[in-house]
What does this fold into?
Amino acid sequence: MSSVCLSMEGGAAASTPAALPYYVAFSQLLGLTLVAMTGAWLGLYRGGIAWESDLQFNAHPLCMVIGLVFLQGDALLVYRVFRNEAKRTTKVLHGLLHIFALVIALVGLVAVFDYHRKKGYADLYSLHSWCGILVFVLYFVQWLVGFSFFLFPGAPFSLRSRYRPQHIFFGATIFLLSVGTALLGLKEALLFNLGDKYSAFEPEGVLANVLGLLLACFGGVVLYILTRADWKRPSQAEEQALSMDFKTLTEGDSPGSQ
Amino acid sequence: MSSVCLSMEGGAAASTPAALPYYVAFSQLLGLTLVAMTGAWLGLYRGGIAWESDLQFNAHPLCMVIGLVFLQGDALLVYRVFRNEAKRTTKVLHGLLHIFALVIALVGLVAVFDYHRKKGYADLYSLHSWCGILVFVLYFVQWLVGFSFFLFPGAPFSLRSRYRPQHIFFGATIFLLSVGTALLGLKEALLFNLGDKYSAFEPEGVLANVLGLLLACFGGVVLYILTRADWKRPSQAEEQALSMDFKTLTEGDSPGSQ
It folds into this structure.
C-alpha cells in the first residue's frame, strides 16, 4: 500500500518546471517550421506532390519529416509535457503518436518504392536507404516491444522497470537516427537534382541547407528536453504504483504479487 | 570536512560494473575498425593520401574520422573507463584527448580548404560544410568554456555544478552532430565520385555504406555507455570534494569559502 501513497504524493507534488513550457513551445515552432519548409521546398522547386505521377517521389520526404521526425519527436516529449496527467493516459497518447508516425512513415516508404518500381530505378543501394530501412525496422520492433511491456497488461513488474531505461535509450537513438537519415536523404535529393548548381549557391540549395540545420536543431532541442534531469516526470514510485493499479484493474492481480 | 570523507568513501566504493569493460572494448574495436576502413576506402578507391597533390583532399575524411569521431568519442568515455582514478587525472586526460581531436580536425579542415583553393572550387555551399563549420565552432567553444570552468582553478564551485549537466549535454550533442556530419560527407564523396555507378552496387559504394553504418553504430555505443545511469562515475560529492581539494592546493582557498 505504501507505493499507492507515494503515487498520490507524487501526483500532488508534480509541478511544471518554469522553463519547460518555453522549450516545448520552441520545439513545436521548430517542428511546424520543418514541415512547412519541407512543403515549401517540394512546392517551389520540385513541382508539388501527387500520388499518380512523377511527383509521387515527393510524398516520401514530406511523410518522413511529418512521421519520423515531427510526430516521433513529439511522442518522446509526451511524458515531459503531460507531467500532471495520469500515467495511463500519457502512455496511451505516447503509443498513439508513435502509431500515427509509423503509418505516415509507411506511406512515405510505399511512395518511394512505388516510384522506383515505375521508373525502373534500383532500390536500397544508398547509405540513406540502408539507414532508412534500419530506422524503420528498429522503430517497428521498439513499438512492438514497448507495447507488450508497457501497454499489454501481462508483463511482470520487475521486467518493466528493467526494460524502461533501455526503451528510453533506444527510443532516443532511433529518433536521432531518423533525423540523421532525413539529412542524408535531403543531401541526396540536392546532389541528384542540383548537381553543379549546388556550389553556385542556388536558392534551392540554400533553402535545403537551412532545412537541414533546422532538422538537426529540432533533434537537439527534443533531446535536451528529454534528457534534462530536473525535467523528468517525478517519481518512478508513482509509475510503479499506477502500473500496479492498472494490473490490479485489468487482471485482478494483487499489488503484493510482484 | 564531511565532503572530504564522502570523497574517500566514494573512492573506496567505486567498483567497475561487470558489463562495462565489454561495451568499452566493443566501442574501441568499432572505433579502430572505422579508422582502418576509412584508410582502406581512401587507399583502395581514392589513390591514398598525400599533402602536395590532388590526394590532399583525402586527408580530410581520415583526419575527421580520427579526430572528431574516434578521439572525440573516446574523450567522452574517459570518465566511465577511469572510474577509480583521481578525478583530476581523468579531467586532464579528457581535456588532452579533446585537444588532440581538435588539432587533428584542424589539419583536416586545412586540407579541404587548401584543396578547394588550389582547384578553384567554391567553399561552404553544402549542408555537409555548414554542419562541419557548426561542429567545429561549437567544439572549440565547448573546449574553451569547459577549460575555464573545470580546469582553470578560479571558477566558483556552485557555477561548476550548475554548468556540469550543460557541458555533458552539449558534449554528447556535438559528438552526435560530428557523426552526422561525417555521414553527410561520406554520402557527398560517394555521389560526387560514383554517380550512376552507386546504384549498380559498386564495391566502393557498398564499402562506404558499411562504413556509414559503423559510424552510426559507434555513435550509438558511445552514447549508450555515456548515458547508462548505473555506469556513471559514482558520487558528485566525490567530485566536489576533489575540485575543492584542487582549489585548496592551487589557491590556498578554504573548502568552506564557496
